[in-house]
Structure formats: C-alpha cells, structure tokens
Amino acid sequence: MAIPPPSKMAGSNPAANTRRMRRIISEDPEWSLTIVPRLTELCLQHIVSNFENNPILTQLLPDQQRRVLDRLSTNLPLKVVANLITDESYWRRRCNQRWAVGHVEKYGNNWKRMFFERHLEELLKLFIPGTTDPNVILDLVPLCQDYVIRLRVDQFLPPVKLEQPIQEMDQSDSASENELDELNMDHYQLGDLVAGLRRLEELDLVFGMKDCGMNFEWNLFLFTNRDCQSLAATIKACHTLKIFRLTRSKVDDEKARILIRSLLDHPALLELDLSHNNIGDRGVRAAAKLINHSQLKILNLANNKIRALGAQALAHALSYNTTLLSLNLRLNCIEDEGGQALAHALQNNSTLTNLHLGGNELSEPTATLFSQVLSVNTTLTCINLSCNHIGLDGGKQLLEGMSDNKTLMEFDLRMSEIGQESEYLIGVALNANQEAARLRTLQPTCCHVTVSHIINNAAG
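^ thats the sequence. predicted structure below, dont judge the formating
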C-alpha cells in the first residue's frame, strides 16, 4: 500500500503543517541542532570544572593539555597551579588579569617569573609586623623559589603604633631619643624568605612608607638597628646575590659599615648601590675596603655626605683595584682635595670605565690633574664633571688633555663654567673618538655595522 505524501496526510493545509512543527519543538525545550559532544570533550570539560580538587594535566596528550589550559580559571589557588603549570600563555592570562600594565621584557620575557616576583613584592609591601601572619609569605616560598630572581620592595610598613602607658613613658625618660624612636619599629625580617629563594640575584630595597598622607611621622622612614643587623646576616648568607641596592633609607656610617662588613669576600656580588642615604667618610672607608675584597664592578654612593677623606680612601683603593668598572659619587662634597686624590689614582688604575663626580664642589685644580689623566688613561670611556666650578682655565686644560685621548666617548661638562669654545672643541674631540671606535668595529667584518651614539656637547 502506497504511503501518501505529507501534504496529503495533513490534508493539504499548510497552516496545519506549521502548527505540527511548532508543537513538536515546544514539547522538547532542550532540543537543538547541535551535535552531541564527543566523550573526550565531555571529559575535558569535567577536568576543567574540577581542576582545583583533582588537577589532572600531565596525564593528558599535548593537544588535550592545551585545551584544558586555555579554559582554566585564572583564580585557581597558587598551591594548585604553581608547581604544575609551566605554560606561559596561562601565566600571561593571570598577569593581564592582575595588573593593567606589565613589562614582561623586564622579567626575561618570562610571564611566570613576572607573576611571582610582583605577587611576592606586593605581599612584602603590605606586610605589617605583629599583625600580618608571617606564613602568608613563607607559605609562598616552596611555590616561587625557582622563579624569583629579583625583588624590588620600595616600602616596608612598621608595626601598628600602640599608645604607650603613662607609667612606661615616665620610666623611659632616661632613654635616648633615638632609642625611643626605634622602640617597636622593626620591619619585616627578610632572612627566612631570602634563604628559601635559591635563584635570587637582585635585592632592591627602600625602608620607608609610601602615601602616608596626613599620618606622616619620621619614624615611618626609620631603618632600625635590628633591621640593619638582620639584613646584614641575610645578604651575607645569600651566596647567589649579584646586585644589592638599599636607597633612601637613612643609612648612616655605622649601619653602612655593618652592611658592608657582611659583604666582604662575597662570592657573587657585582653591584652595590647605597645612594641617597646619610653615609659619611667612615662609611666610605668600609666601601673602599670592600672594593678590594670582592668582585665588585659597580659602586654607587651618590647623594650622601662624603667629603675629602672619604674620597681619598676610595682613591687609595682604586690605585690597586683591578675589578671596579663604575664609580658614582654624584652630589657629595669631596672638593678639590678629594678630586685630586681620585685623579692621581686614575693615572694608575686600568679598569675603571665610568666615573661620575657631578655636583662635588670641584674647581680648576681638579681639572688640571684630570687633564693629565686624559693624557695617560686608556680605559675611561665616560666622565661626568657637570655642576662643578671648573672655570675657563680649567676647561682649556681639559681640552688640552683631550688632544691626546683616543678612548673617552662621553664627557659631561654641563654647568661647569668652562665656556662655549672649550665645550665645543671637546665635543669635536669626542666625536672623533666615537667615529674611530665605529670604524674599528667595521674592520673584522663588513656584515655587521655598529653605530655608536654620538653625544653632542657643542654649545647651542
């Protein structure tokens, strides 16, 4: 028996067909034309949904791992993902969600390193001694110990200040003002943390407080004796440390000596920056000793309280030193007595390449000796004597020294009163040295061209 066509079965009424179609769809609201997912897809969705409680990743095929990683939440606990996930795209998503601005190139183009360094730095900046649980930081060490290479902490919060009872205030009348200021103001001690970071190479610290507003007090910017002792022990034990910076922290002579003593014969230290502190001649004598008892290549003591005696101690060390490449004494007050001592040392030193003596009350006598340095020294490539009182005669003597110099590439003499003619001619001599250096780089091969940056010191 032949089956009639649908139009015949419905009585050839188009409206009836439409009603029937709508009725069938409305009976099953879950119905759709989508193909049922594969079993593997359903399994991957389950893994993603339950990843926190049952993290399955390494057992999957590479393509399956990729699909899981692309769907994982960026809010998963670090204890779950830190030692399991190395995929850079996942850590990139976590970084972009956490911070609006991020320069991954500053972290070796490694997103996971960037995440853990910045995360740890933020925890340290907000840690309040006596209030915050130390385990908040220490529990992170096993998770980040292989990824943190640099720590930059520009704030250390002091403990919450409690009202001192009147009886205690009466009993403390005999205590010194400094002792009262430092009472219970010690900051977070880095020893246990740094000991667990086995790849740490750079430590950049500022003991102070940002955005204190109307609650400003000087003791919020206090680097206490206990802070100093603890930090000295920390950096001494960190044998991987290559760069140590402690700036804007009111470090005085005694604290500088404690810190530097802990760095003597350090196996890896290459750079020390104690700029913008209160270090005087006694502290600098310790730094002078360090120069010849380490592999130090960069020393920055800018904006301290160094005078002639401190500069003379550094000069004596430079006379015998064979490792230091850069010395920055900007914004001190070594005057001509200290400047001349350094000039004498540079006639024998054969390793220093960069010297910054800007803003040190230097004048013509120092320029006279530096003219001799320029004639005999073949390693200095950059000298800064800006913001001094070199004078016209001093400028002429420096110009005379430049006539015999073939290695200096940068010579900053701004605001040193040497006159436009000397400044222009010294700039011409520098350009000649830079061009000669450029031509030397072309001699070995014609395939690689290196263009030196030409500093134009000519008067406007």
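The two ends are 108 Å apart (CA to CA).
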